[in-house]
Each structure stands twice: as structure tokens, then as C-alpha cells.
Amino acid sequence: MAESESSQEDLSTLIDRYLTAYPMERRDRALLTELVYGIFRQRGALDWQIDHFSKVKTLHPAIRNILRLGLYQLLFLNKIPPSAAVNTSVEFAKEAEGMPAARLVNGLLRNILRQKESLPTPDPKGDPVTFIAVTTSHPEWMVRRWLARWGKEKTLQFCRSNNEVPPTTLRTNILKIKREALARRLEEEGAAVTLSTFSPVALFVRGAAVSSLPSYREGLFYVQDEGAQLISELVDPQPGETILDFCAAPGGKTTHLAELSGGRAQMTATDIHTGRIDLIRENIARLQAPGISIEPLAEATAAGRRYDRILIDAPCSALGILRRIPEGRWRKQPSIIAEYAGEQRKILDQALSHLKVGGRLVYATCSTEPEENERQAASFGAAHPELKLEDPRGGLPVSARKYVNEQRYFTTLFNSDKMDQFFAVRWIRVE
């Protein structure tokens, strides 16, 4: 956990690296993953209780992590006996900082355990920001923003949804296999499978580590949220068109666009972060996606380069996918929203100069914030009369068209259909 707090890499990457270095049985792998993700999801609530019960004003970071680990097991898991959770935590503390730390951990955890059914919480009426921040484990700055915009009930709803374990959603590689055939194959490999409702190529799986399956190695699917899959549907790529994926890494939407065009579009994939381009290459190779050229940004946006369709899956605050990246709650600062909004506008301006007349530009984020979504789209559209906002419902499956609102914006905010929170808008260049 200490590494995950100091690193900027995704939690999933760090866990995979650890499990590669220290192989475990499947059951132990699952428990490790649950503990690490769970502690990050509930970190705010855990820390509040720790600080409330601790007689030590400033805890050593290693001891705080040990307390989080033990307390999470006591409060949120029922598969580990309380005595085992406490004793293991005490041993960790003794090894890390000696007997005084071990006595502190033992006393604090046992004190909380005795009061487990009546633990204190902040006053919901007197201090709603702290109450929501603590009980749903979110930074106060996020809660404060959402309360001002949505009110208490919706903010609670949203924060609680971020603590749900998201489904494992796969996108069928339709150039290799049909969805129903993939479902049968996955079941043969030991997974429980359910077909999705909105993306025609998505399915949900349980009971399997998907990256270890033969079907994964054969490139029969890509792990991708259903909402993200609908962004590529909005682009609506056609055979023979030239298409630019401007912020392509790690290549999920790039390969989906290639699949949707039947492999007959001329796809160019690039990214503003050169260090991530290898990720695109790896996914293209595994999926064997055809018709994709990976180019440096300077080459993809050289003078004279024009495209029929451009997708900007923009770098953003990612506040719409916090259930998948719980560590992101504690790494992000309020300033990132304005910083990303500025970067997004520069990308939009640069991309527009490479869009053909009659071409489509799709801008998308996984943010919840209007500065990155509605306000960004409105400001950019107002500055460019050569663009016309399109109703993108025609590019979506019928069941997903409900996610286009009256302003012609695609948004899955507050959806109840297991999807992450996405926003997208599509323009056509008319002159």
C-alpha cells in the first residue's frame, strides 16, 4: 500500500507487478486484491475511526497502513476471524516498529472491535460535508463540489455508487468471434457470463481472472466498460474513411473503431503522451486489429493531414470512474479540473484543424465535472461556427439512445445500468 500511495501508476498495475514477483494461489490472489482495493475505497472512513480512537496524535505511516488493514477486515470483511485480523496486525506492527507500536495497534483495534455496533460518525445535519466524506470515504473537496451542484441525496447516491465493486465487462472482438460464441467459450473456460443490454458486443463475467484465460491470449476480447464501448459507437466509423484517434493509449477505443469499421477504415492512432504509445501497440498485436497505423503526434497532425472522423478521448480528472480507481480519490487535487480543462481545449483546437469539411469530431471524457464536459463543449462550439452539434443517437444502439439528453450531449451520469460515468459530444464540420 505504501508504494500505491507514492506511485502514479494504477493500482491494478501495481498489484499485477507484485503478483508476478510473488506468485500466489488463486484464493490468496483474490483476497489480496480485495484487501488493497477495499482499503482504498474505505480509506476515509478507516482513517476517521483511527484518528478518533488513537491516543497518538501523529501515527507513523507504516503503522497507519497496518491499522487500515486490520480495521478494514474488522469492519468490512466477514471471512477473516476478528482475532486473526487483530493478531496479524499486531505482528506486522511489532516487525515494523517494535513492541510499543504492537501494543498501540492491539489496543486500538480491540477498542474499536468492542464498539463495532455503535461506532461514532460525524453529525449529518451540522456538518454534511464531513459526514458524507467520512461515511462514503471521499475527499472533502469532491464532496463539497458535488453538494453545491447536486444536493445531499444525489451526492450520497453518487459517492455510495463509487464504493460498489464494478463488473468485469468485456468487449467482443467481432473480427474474430461473435458475442454468443465468445460467451460459450468463456463458460467452457470456467467463467460465469451475462450478456449486456446496451453495447451489442459487451458481456459481463464473474469467477475468472480474465487475463489468464486462453481466450484473452488469443485476442478474442478486450476488457472495457460498457459506457466506454458506446463512445466508439458514437464515432460511427465507416469503411474507407480516414480516422484519427488523438488520445489513443492504451488502444481500447482504437481497436474498437477498427472492429466497427470491419477492419476497412484507415485508422491512425497517436497520443500526446509518447510513453504510452507502446500500450497501443501491445493491444493491437494481441487483438490483431487491422488497418491501424501508430504514429507520433507530430506526424499524425502534420500539415496537410485531414481526417473524416476524429476521436478525442480526452485526458481528464477521471472523477467518473472512481469506483475502478479508488486510489484516484486520494491522489487528486481540486486544481486538476481547471488544468485538464485547459489541456482539453488545446487538444480540441489542434484536432479541429485536421478535420475535413463534412467530417465528424467526437469529444469524450470520463469526468463528472461541467468544466470538462458541458461547459467545455459549449465554449468550444461557440468559438467555432464551422461546427454543427449533431444528435448522435443514430450512431448508438436503440437501447442506449436514452443517454442522449435534450442538449444532444451523451451522458451516463447517475445511470443505474452498471456503467461508468461518461460524457461525449459529436460535431460535424459544415465549412
Question: Can you describe what's shown?
Answer:
This protein has 431 residues and is α/β, with parallel strands linked by helices. The chain contains 19 helices and twelve strands. The protein is globular. The chain has helices at 2-6, 11-21, 26-41, 43-53, 61-76, 82-97, 99-114, 128-136, 140-150, 152-161, 179-188, 214-217, 226-235, 252-260, 277-287, 297-300, 328-331, 335-352, 374-383; strands at 168-172, 192-195, 202-206, 221-223, 242-245, 266-269, 292-294, 307-313, 355-365, 387-389, 410-411, 423-429. Helix 5 (61-76) runs antiparallel to helix 6 (82-97), helix 8 (128-136) crosses helix 9 (140-150) and helix 13 (226-235) packs across helix 14 (252-260). Among the domains are: 128-161, no CATH class; 169-223, Alpha-Beta Plaits (2-Layer Sandwich), CATH 3.30.70; 226-429, Rossmann fold. The model has no long low-confidence stretch (mean pLDDT 95). The strands form two sheets. Strands 5, 6, 7, 8, 9, 10, 11 and 12 form an eight-stranded mixed beta sheet that branches. A four-stranded antiparallel beta sheet has the order 2-3-1-4, covered by helices on one side.
